Amino acid sequence: MANVSVYNIEGKEVGSIELNEAVFGVEINEHLVHMAVVQQLANKRQGTQSAKTRAEVRGGGRKPWKQKGTGHARQGSTRSPQWTGGGVVFAPKPRNYSFKMNKQEKLAAIQSALTSRVNASKLVVLDELNFPEVKTKQMKAVLDNLKVSKALVVLGEKNDNVVLSARNLPTVRTALTNTINVYDILKYDTLVLTKDAVAKIEEVYA
Question: Where do the segments described as Disordered lie (predicted)?
Fold first, then answer.
């Protein structure tokens, strides 16, 4: 099992914790990780883009000039794609870009992403994270103590003071254990977990 240090909010090491290899020590499947990221980005797309084809553009019913004798190339309509104001070739139309991954694939992708953070020494475990009031300075101080800047902070339970304290930091995102995803884990340089978040992740994703 991987053994990682546990820190307090002052950045001091206060112990260690053994991570479950079934979650944090699997063989990384790059294909499924890539697929999970593509799926999340595809599912976010609105798919509302639209342009008119030559059949939908108004006008152009009359042949602009006779077929022969003018010196021009033959033309059948002023709404052909090569004309200004003409239709678009293979015009984009509204469509749904989303696709599905089965549960086993999603699970393997999450486990691979978590393992990659451990292997890269980019996973930090906190004994607890709790603030008496909403203060962005407090959250910034904790991250500075941990020598972390761009981080995904995962909490075991909802904590409004922590969430609101981190909200104004542009390089920090907070999440609960049931809302973590592959894209966010890989997007942020460091994954910061509380001890109770580690326990819940091992319980859900093992």
Answer: 44-87
Order across the sheet with 172-176: list the strands. Answer: 13-19, 2-7, 123-126, 190-194, 151-155, 172-176
User: Is the domain defined by 2-45+97-205 classed in CATH 3.40.50.10260?
Assistant: no
pTM of the shown model = 0.82
Residue ranges of the chain that CATH labels 3.40.1370.10: 2-45+97-205
